[in-house]
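Box S1 | Example of a co-folding query
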Amino acid sequence: MQEILFESACPYVECINNNTKYTWRHHNCGGNEKLNRMGDLRCLKCGSCAPMVDWKFDCGNHGFQRGSYQGYKHLCMIMISIADTEDEIEFAQNLSFNVIPKWKREGKFNN
Ligand SMILES: [Zn+2]
Ligand SMILES: [Zn+2]
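Box S1 (continued) | Returned holo structure for zinc ion
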């Protein structure tokens, strides 16, 4: 399945870093993270793989936090603004219009 390197802002909506681009790394092993079209994040080093909505994120500003619906929508806008390729834009649009609303319907967000 096609994947892109996961680079975007922090999905914790109250974070002051939610306009800052990060190349996210898996805390447990330091591996880079890849994102697929289903919204799954996969660590390139240890192979951990789960829907992004189930991961917790720490940009260094607040300890580990789950992303919120608003945070993920914002993250997609940042992904589009920093995208280098059409693929990356298409991924972010798919995430924003299909995957995140699906997570919302499934009750994945607390807020
Ligand atoms: Zn890992
Ligand atoms: Zn943050």
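The beta strands are 3-5, 7-8, 22-23, 33-36, 40-43, 49-51, 56-57, 65-66. The helical segments are 69-82, 86-105.
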